[in-house]
Amino acid sequence: MTISSEARLSQQATRAEPLGQPAQPPADSLYQGVEVPTVTGPLTELVGLPMPQCPDTVTDLSMRYRVRRERRPRFPFPIPNGWFIVATADELAPGQVKPLYYFGRDLVLFRGADGTPHLLDAYCPHLGAHLGAGGRVVGGTLQCPFHGWRFDGQSGTCVEVPYDDVDHIPKTATARTYPTLERNHMIWAWHHLEGKEPFYDVPEVPEFHDDDWSPIVVRDFEVASCCQEMAENNVDTPHFKFVHGTEAVPEEEFHTDGHHKRTVALDGAFVREGFGLGLGVLRVRDYTTFLSSTTPIDEEHVHCRWIFTSPRSLGDGTAEAAADSFVAGVSQDFPIWENKIYKDPPVLRPSEKGVTEHRRWCEQFYSYPDA
Ligand code: FES
Ligand SMILES: [Fe+2]
Question: Does domain 2-70+205-365 have CATH number 3.30.530.20?
Answer without folding.
Answer: yes
